[in-house]
Amino acid sequence: MSASLDYTRQEIMAIATGREIRDGELAIFGVGLSMLAGYFAHANHAPNLRSMTEGGVYGATPVGGLPWGIECNRISSNATCFSSALDALGFLVASGRCDVGVIGAAQVDKFGNVNTTGIWDGEIGEKFRPPKTRLPGAGGANDIACGAKRFIIMVTHEPKRFAEKVTYISSPGYLEGGDARSRHGFVGGGPSAIITTLGVLRPEAGTNEFVLDGWFTFSSPEEIKANTGWDLRTSPRAKVIAEPTREELANLRKVDQTGALRK
Amino acid sequence: MSSKLISLAEAVRRFSWDGMQYASGAALPVGSDAIIFGRELLRQRRRDLHAIFHCNSQQLNLLAAAGAVTKAECGFSALEVFGFANGLRRAVESGQLALEDYSNLAMPLRFLGGALNWPFVPATVNIGSDMQYRSAFAPDDYPNKTKIPSVVDPFSGREIGAFSPLKPDVAAIHVTLADATGNSILLGTEWSRVELSRAAKKVVIIADAIVDPGCIRQFPNLVRIPDLIVEAVVYWPFAAWPQSSPGMYDVDEGHMKFMNKALATEQGTADYIRDFVAPFDDIDSYLDMIGRENIATLSQSSTSFLLDPYRKWILSPEQIAEHAAELAA
Questions:
Q1: Which of A84, B131, B152, B329 could be cross-linked to B190 through a Cys-Cys bond (beta carbons 3.0 to 4.6 Å apart)?
Q2: Cα separation, A228 vs A81, whole angstroms
Q3: pLDDT of residue A260
Q4: CA angle (A138 as vertex; A136, A144 as ends), nearest 5
């Protein structure tokens, strides 16, 4: 933790994610922490951000804290448009119009592929079998991963979540790496960053393997490597990431009224 | 057109059967969903359902927990910020229910394909991931070639996928306002209720409130489900409880958590059915079961203003009965 400012790892993860989002962009957020990161960007440095939810609720900002869901009263009381999933994920994302999306992950691998479907004991094998632990499934994340110009993955940094290869690809990153995505003709460009509770990983040009790009002041390259399930390489440009400013923290906490990121 | 208002019990008797493909809308995990229809499905002991839910909701969570569902197709299978859906999860992990995974865009696209009677829908999402290669309905087939088969775009020559269209036997669709013949106004996101209403072979509307036809004639642009395609209308306030209905009531946070915790075990599910599925006989006793004070609190929603333009047309239970009689005459 910082000597001057007191904040949680979840909060710096949300702030670092928000810093990836630029003013004026057309952006889509899932429910939960990614929504807080997106609306933080809106409150902090991107007043002209064009935000949408995959549920078709546009122009809204959360009222009274982190919404329980996309149709929750906390996100439906100041919307400027109620539309549909086909509109949000189809007309505005699958079309190729969406600039940036933010998604979460239960498991992510070195090519930025995301598993949110289940946890199996070992490989699934030839025959599909129920997972030991069933997870939420793809939701809109697969559609964002296929269609958004770029997307950001937000994930708690733990060894079990950072695998050489995910057990099940729910949402495609760079698949087997390199230009593997081009095989499927996705309109979207792929993941631009993995933002974690310890630092930031970005894809290396050419291989599209994720490498260490930055660490937080309370973290270190050694700690990040120890918590990553593949042999993580470090970018020559890697450096310590700026601490949140007072203003950034204040803006984040305005959005996160119920303190979901401080628990 | 004559009134299509019928009781909840009659709607489930006439429009559901064991082994059917049952779809519910909107089915956002925390929002508007015809949850009351699912409670009645359990009261009438329907079994072996093939559930088509764009997203899981507390309805699918309950039906799965009670063992009434053997197959399900979903774009998302949790409860958003309320966490994993314990009842559905238990049914999937035990192998009792085969859950076929799609995404939140794939499901409305498949409804659209059903609605338009297309042979397939071009898929530019879900391809290249395990949602294409793995199938819970055909577990031995890997990599799977029948769930989202590859097809060639005849114009570009590029390989894409094909989604199978959906035409559920019956869709129970939750709406905010309907008139007695089924013209429906939806406050909040449509999610996929419009496509679903055109894809399903039969549509039963579950409305939080019934309005005078004057309301429909004032706002015809806002009628997203017309009576032309509606078989029956059920009036049932707080039909989406414990989920929310924008303009009407907020999500019941306490009951969402309580219910999901109960559905995590067989005993908890049995207790939940005893206490919150079996006891009510009519709308009044249902509202008593929720609790009148709780109803008052949930009705004080920050979204209440959304209902203001329509309030003067909302019929009281007595007016609904009279109105139904007039239309029948």
A1: A84
A2: 41
A3: 85
A4: 140
